[in-house]
Design a protein that fits this description.
The complex is a heterodimer of chains A (about 160) and B (about 140). Chain A is about 70% helix and about 0% strand. By secondary structure, chain A is mainly α. Chain A has one domain: Up-down Bundle (Ferritin). In chain A, helix 4 packs antiparallel against helix 5, helix 4 runs antiparallel to helix 6 and helix 5 runs antiparallel to helix 7. Chain B is built from four helices and no strands. In chain B, helix 1 runs antiparallel to helix 2, helix 1 packs antiparallel against helix 3 and helix 3 packs antiparallel against helix 4. The two termini of chain B are about 15 Å apart. Chain B has about 140 residues and is mainly alpha-helical. The longest helix of chain B has 27 residues. Classes of the chains: A mainly alpha (about 160), B mainly alpha (about 140). At the A-B interface, helix 5, helix 6 and helix 7 of A face helix 3 and helix 4 of B.
Chain lengths: ~160, ~140
């Protein structure tokens, strides 16, 4: 995976590139002085956890949608596993996800989840643009593309 | 791989995609298979547009864009709708990997172009009866 290689490349100037300027979470504190792509990975993990929490809450509130949400949930898990494996030991990725309120009607819940998935997609694309490591950018781009595929499934 | 090498590899892939989608479209019946025909035609136009964009980009950097081959190996079977879908899916999966390589090898506007292309290709794969992947565009 490319993050390891990237950390060797970029140790200077990381504070300037670090998007997590406040120490509100353990993950933010952990990456404060780390390499830029580690900060990108931590942000990706936070985005994925937020989307995962939204999909999980929706499936729990509307069991009838569970089968339809199996794909997005499995994809989030796989992506989180890959991002977690990419960061060095000792970096805390367990940032708390924002509470997610599920609409009462299934159709509205699905529509809102689609918005959340779209937000995840756009966030991953933005992170892929920022990544200094080519392989890590590719991974993030692949994750964004996979999210687009899942979005198509949600819409269908 | 340098950015230019990745762009040339992607251009070579687009040449092949344009050729193959042209052949696949010619094998589909517009009257009997209108949906499939429309999807193949859309793919042909998309890849032709991308080929032209890459040609301009590469030429603009002062390099000679890689030319198309005279012909390309065709899928073994292209008689039925299922076979045409399979062949189209294989073309999209192959070109998606070149977009992935382009993301990896570039930055800035070129990387954004590749991200959009990969996204589009991943969704297009579903239209050719592909199933969602965890990491489209990776090996």
């Amino acid at each position: 995976m490319g993050v390891g290689a990237a950390t060797v490349l970029a140790t200077a100037g990381c504070a300037l590139n670090n998007p997590l300027r406040e120490d509100k979470t353990p993950a933010a504190r952990a990456v404060r002085d780390l390499e830029p792509d580690v900060a990108v990975a931590v942000e990706a993990a936070a985005l994925l956890r937020t989307a995962q929490a939204a999909a999980s809450a929706t499936a729990e509130r509307h069991p009838g949608l569970a089968a339809r949400l199996a794909g997005p949930l499995a994809t989030h898990r796989a992506h989180l596993d890959r991002v977690s494996a990419a960061v060095p030991d000792g970096v805390d990725l367990s940032a708390t996800a924002t509470p997610y309120v599920v609409p009462e009607r299934p159709a509205a819940a699905l529509a809102q989840l689609g918005t959340a998935e779209r937000s995840l997609h756009d966030g991953l694309v933005g992170l892929a643009m920022r990544a200094r490591s080519g392989p890590f950018a590719r991974l993030l781009g692949a994750m964004a593309a996979a999210t687009s595929q899942q979005l198509r499934g949600l819409a269908g | 791989m340098t950015p230019l090498e990745a762009e040339q590899a992607t251009l070579a892939g687009e040449h092949a995609a344009v050729y193959l989608f042209g052949v696949l479209g010619a094998q589909a019946s517009e009257s009997r298979q209108p949906d499939l025909y429309a999807r193949l035609l859309d793919a042909f136009h998309t890849h032709r547009r991308r080929r032209d964009q890459l040609t301009v980009t590469i030429a603009g950097s002062g390099a000679d864009p890689v030319p198309a081959e005279v012909s390309y190996d065709l899928p073994a079977a292209m008689s039925t709708a299922a076979e045409l879908n399979d062949a189209a899916l294989q073309v999209e999966r192959r070109i998606a990997r070149t977009y992935g390589q382009l993301i990896e090898s570039t930055a800035g506007a070129e990387r954004r172009w590749a991200l959009v292309a990969l996204d589009d290709s991943a969704v297009r794969q579903l239209e050719f009866r592909g199933t969602p992947e965890m990491f489209p565009g990776t090996d």
